[in-house]
Design brief:
Blueprint lengths: L2 H24 L7 E8 L13 H15 L2 E9 L13 E2 L10 H24 L7 H9 L11 E6 L5 E2 L2 E2 L8 H14 L9 E5 L9 H18 L3 E2 L5
């Protein structure tokens, strides 16, 4: 074989090897990058009874789908208790798409990590349910907001909130407020945000589960309740609220 033929064969071999390597890389699933949060309500209304919304069942039914749909990677957790920001209940954040060996099955790893996330969320729920009863929803949102990415181009944040959103803490009970008119709701929101910490969730995507279940048979009260939270979360906090898992 001539020197030219040898050179040509060598070039073709290198090109074929490079193409095979590129194919292997291109077949690797794209890594997840989405930051996510999970907030769980441990108040009395989260119980699995006729008057509760069964937070445990809703977590089991929706969390895996939420994490998978949104391609969640770094995922943090926060409880809703009587005073959420001061609650001792906590679980560590998780990386749901961790670095692995090149031969590992990434989809299987992600599935396993989502199962760990559910276990963590259920552990947090159990702790919250054992604390003094109460439902500081806004405090839970403020606590998860501390984990929201800031700066850079990729600072989006998806948050699953398993709660009926019936705020009831030592200083504010939603059921006792006048929500009958736009003016009265605005006044209530003003006072509420003044006495509580406003969550830094501007631009975040919030996915409630169990939202307003206390009022599912009372259309009028639900409409007032929904108007209150819509104005607070979307109008004041500037978050985006979705009904995907509600």
């Amino acid at each position: 074989m001539t020197r030219r033929a040898l050179t040509t064969a060598l070039v073709l071999t290198i090109a074929a090897t490079a193409a095979t390597a590129c194919d292997a890389v291109s077949n690797e699933p794209k890594r997840y990058s989405q930051a996510c949060g999970v907030v769980v309500d441990g108040s009395g209304s989260a119980a699995a009874n006729k008057t509760g919304f069964d937070a445990e069942a809703k977590l089991k039914a929706t969390l895996n789908t939420f994490l998978s749909d949104n391609k969640c990677r770094k995922t943090s957790f926060a409880p809703i208790t009587k005073v959420s920001q001061a609650s001792k209940c906590q679980v560590s954040p998780l990386d749901l798409d961790p670095d692995t060996s090149k031969t590992a099955d990434r989809d299987r790893t992600r599935k396993a990590m989502r199962a760990v996330a559910l276990s963590s969320a259920l552990k947090l729920l159990e702790c919250a349910q054992n604390e003094e009863p109460g439902s500081d929803v806004l405090g839970g949102l403020s606590r998860i907001a501390l984990t929201k990415p800031s700066g850079g181009d990729d600072d989006s944040f998806d948050v699953l909130v398993v709660s009926d959103f019936d705020q009831g803490d030592p200083d504010f009970r939603l059921g006792r407020q006048d929500l009958s008119t736009a003016a009265s709701r605005a006044k209530t929101i003003d006072a509420f945000l003044k006495s509580h910490h406003e969550p830094e969730l501007s631009g975040a995507d919030i996915y409630p589960v169990g939202y307003g279940m206390k009022y599912h048979t009372d259309t009028s009260r639900y409409d007032q309740f929904n108007s209150f939270w819509t104005e607070l979360l979307e109008g004041r906090v500037k978050a985006h609220v979705h009904t995907t898992y509600r």
